[in-house]
Amino acid sequence: MQVAGRFFVFDGSNGAGKSTVLEAIASQLREQNYTVITTREPGGTAIGEEIRQLLLNPQSSAMCAQTELLLFAAARAQHVREKIAPALQAGHIVLSDRFDAATVSFQHYARGLSLNLVNTVNEVALDGFAPHLTLVFDIDPVVGLQRVGARATQDRLEAENIAFLERARQGYLKQAQANPKCFTVIDASQPLVQVIAQAAAAIAPHLPLSS
After folding, report:
1. What gap in Å lies between CA 133 and CA 18, rounded to an integer?
2. Would you say 87 and 125 are in contact if contact means Cβ atoms under 8 Å apart?
3. CA within 20 to 30 Å of 83's CA: 3, 76, 163, 202, which one?
4. Do β-strands 6-12 and 36-40 pair in parallel, antiparallel, or remain unpaired?
């Protein structure tokens, strides 16, 4: 899919601060005269947000791994076609809180579904679409859970055990190691100002000239 804009994903461990960094980078880019669209997964569209409520609701404890995988993919298919692709065609910068690497990490590495199945479902949802760069914010799951625990509520995935979250973490690191041109790993245990600076530096070479 040929696009005029740029698509950057902020992903990684729960509690790593990726959402905070995303908003900081969005502000920086807007100051540089880029038109920036921020979004999230699951979600980003009205349909996606409905799916998000089902996926992350702690009361959805009976959901099996295959249902989880297919719901994430359904939200992503809508997200790409309704929101992300049109914004990129218009020349905008899109920043997403999570995307396809999360499905590989959580549904394959953490849940144990086959990589072939996960990749096949992702391919159906994406239809050849891919981010320009995925930033992986890496942190020890114990520290991440301590951060998440400070929130009023935890979603269904945040409430998983340490072993599950560590498997997901390793899934991100393995993806980044296998494809360094498309992934950048950032140590999220650093002070926030350093994390933001490193994220900005990683994105900068991929940006088009601002208007």
Report:
1. 14
2. no
3. 202
4. unpaired
Distance (Å, rounded) from C-alpha 76 to C-alpha 67?
Answer: 14
Q: Are 18 and 137 in contact (CB under 8 A)?
A: yes
Query: Residue type for 204, please?
Result: A
For 141-191, write each residue's pLDDT tens digit. Answer: 989 888 876 555 667 676 678 899 999 999 999 999 999 999 999 999 999
Sorted by where each begins, the domain ranges of the chain are 6-206
> pLDDT digits over 94-106, tens only?
999 999 999 999 9
What one-character-per-residue DSSP string does the chain give?
---SSEEEEEEESTTS-HHHHHHHHHHHHHHTT--EEEEESS-SSHHHHHHHHHHH-TT-TT--HHHHHHHHHHHHHHHIIIIIHHHHHTT-EEEEES-HHHHIIIIIIIT---HHHHHHHHHHHHTT---SEEEEEE--HHHHHHHHHTSS---TTTTS-HHHHHHHHHHHHHHHHH-TTTEEEEETTS-HHHHHHHHHHHHGGGPPPP-
Give the CATH number of domain 6-206. 3.40.50.300
- The pTM score is 0.93
Q: What is the model's pLDDT at position 2?
A: 47
pLDDT above 90 as % of the chain: 81
**pLDDT class for 209, splitting at 50, 70, 90?**
confident
Q: Which two tokens stand for residue 98?
A: 């999570």
